[in-house]
Write a structure and sequence with these properties.
eight-stranded parallel β-sheet; about 550 residues; single chain; alpha/beta
């Protein structure tokens, strides 16, 4: 099943997009209100983070009812109207499916706790826990009521892993997928989907907190084929993306090769760990450009050679804003934002825009820990204090790495709370909202550059369908690659720093034609000078 490779996806974190009720929380009607804006940007599909009923222990990724709308976000009628109106603007919807685990508030878990053996087999229960570590810290097993058994939770203790080996579990989860598909949804993003296939016999695994024992197991591919065949597989152009935790190129080729009938594309996060000191998130370190460049080339070439397909992104709801991470925004915010955009939109894969990237939003630069609400950040702050860091040092690390950096309200205008709400926002608005907002930026350099990139993907088959070949592979300042399609060649150059750099051009591109640049005057001879954070795409002869 082939997808339309010209499409561009826009991610909305509903809680932070637009509030229409004044309760400080974004809602579905706020998304409806902004559909004309998104149509003007030119995107084809909206990925929505979970809006289902949930105790919100993990911002909605702990689902207590898979086939309903959390009243905080609106009603099912709002959802249906949103899908219908989206279609009139040429915009489809992709929903987040969290099928590795459910909330312990879900009726399946509650029935299991009450002694129903049918539902007990919906979960992974053992008499003796293994040494696996939860991704949120601590042991990955918790006591299952008063039974003497333990249940597996790879994430929060309130997120019980589902037993995919049970055919009744698969049947119920496939019903969920079909429920939303029947409501007109045209895509799904599957949360940590490469963790669903645990081994039948669970054993201790001291390596890497136990991850090898449950990550990318061979049975995972069987489950995805079953789901494909039982749900979306018969719909032409249906788009599915798997969030892959600690994955490999080899497995992502298997997940996304169309002939295997699993998924359309895969997210990986390796490139967003290049500013981790010794692999640890809660540290401050300049990003390692050479590692970033190498990872992009490894995945770009590897997936191309194996007929796999990448989902390309810089920022999401779980990551700080890439613009604040990789660019000197005091001097080069617009140049850096457009360069980052081109470096993935001109590459091989489906590009994703995270809300606010199209206007160059920055991390909020909060003043105190009281401004943060993300449980991961609050826990990390306390751990850092316990390790002996000063409150000032701990706060400075939180400011660079917190998930709240991307979750601050969308900045619509310069009015109070950036036009997001008439009430008190659930999370404070970033400091820059008076200057960086849609009203100010919509005719500006960044927004119009995104519009141009989206158009180019639709106009030039080489961008949507071309191969990927690494270029300037040892350059310590420029990330570059070639695209090739039906005899046509395109060279894409991205300067990741604030100083100019001169490059000798391969003969095929000397005196070549510029496709796009974020600077107006570009002279191309046998060499080219890239200005600060310049992106430049050149057609070969």
């Amino acid at each position: 099943m082939m997808i339309d490779k010209t499409k561009v996806v826009y991610q909305i974190y509903p809680k932070s997009y637009k509030d229409t009720t004044g309760n400080g929380v974004g809602d579905l009607r706020g998304i409806i209100e902004k559909l004309p804006y998104l149509a003007e940007l030119g995107i084809d599909m909206i990925w929505l983070n979970p809006f289902y009923p949930s105790p919100q222990r993990d911002n909605g990724y702990d689902i207590s009812d898979y086939t309903a709308v959390n009243p905080d976000f609106g009603t099912m009628a709002d959802f249906e109207e949103m899908v219908r109106l989206g279609k009139s603007h040429g915009i489809d919807f992709m929903l987040d499916m969290v099928l590795n685990h459910c909330s312990t508030d879900h009726e399946w878990f509650q029935k299991a706790l009450a002694g129903d053996t049918f539902y007990q087999d919906f979960f992974i229960l053992r008499d003796h826990p293994t040494d696996w570590v939860s991704k949120f810290g601590g042991n990955a097993w918790a006591p299952f009521g008063e039974t003497g058994k333990y249940y597996l939770h790879l994430f929060d203790v309130t997120q019980a892993d589902l037993n995919w080996r049970n055919p009744h579990v698969r049947e119920e989860l496939f019903k969920v997928v079909n429920f939303w598909k029947d409501k007109g949804v045209k895509g799904f993003r599957f949360d940590v989907i490469n963790l669903i296939g645990k081994d039948e016999v669970l054993e201790d695994c001291p390596i890497n907190d136990g991850k090898p024992a449950y990550t990318d197991r061979p049975i995972n591919h069987d489950y995805l084929r079953m789901m494909n065949n039982a749900t979306f597989g018969d719909q032409e152009g249906f788009m599915t993306v798997g969030e892959m935790s600690a994955t490999t190129v080899e497995n992502c080729i298997l997940y996304t090769d169309p002939e295997r009938e699993e998924l359309s594309m895969a997210f990986n996060f390796h490139h967003l760990k290049v500013d981790y000191q010794d692999g640890q998130k809660w540290t401050i370190k300049d990003f390692d450009f050479n590692e970033l460049r190498s990872l992009f080339h490894t995945w770009g070439e590897g997936m191309a050679q194996g007929n796999g397909w990448n989902a390309l992104f810089w920022t999401c709801h779980d990551q700080p804003r890439a613009l604040s991470r990789f660019v000197d925004t005091d001097k080069f915010r617009e140049e850096g934002a457009t360069m980052l955009a081109a470096s993935i939109h001109l590459s091989r894969g489906t590009p994703y825009i995270y809300q606010g990237e199209e206007i160059g939003m920055l991390d909020p630069d909060f003043d105190a820990m009281d401004d943060y609400v993300d449980v991961e950040s609050l826990n990390a702050y306390q751990i850092m204090l316990d390790e002996g860091k000063t409150p000032e040092k701990a706060l400075s690390i939180i400011k660079t790495k917190s998930r709240d950096n991307a979750r601050t309200p969308m900045q619509w205008d310069a009015s109070d709370n950036a036009g997001f709400t008439t009430g008190t926002p659930w999370l404070k608005v970033g400091k820059t909202y008076k200057e960086i907002n849609v009203e100010n930026q919509k005719d500006g350099k960044i927004f119009t550059f995104y519009q141009e990139l989206i158009k180019l993907r639709k106009e030039h088959a080489i961008i949507a369908a071309g191969d990927y070949k690494a270029a300037y592979v040892n350059h310590n300042q420029v990330y570059a690659f070639e695209r090739e399609h039906e005899g046509q060649k395109l060279l894409v150059l991205n300067n990741f720093y604030g100083n100019e750099v001169e490059l000798e051009l391969p003969s095929a591109y000397q005196k070549g034609q510029t496709l796009i640049s974020n600077y107006e005057e570009v002279e191309i001879t046998d060499k080219v000078t890239l200005k600060a954070y310049q992106t430049l795409a050149i057609f070969g002869k």
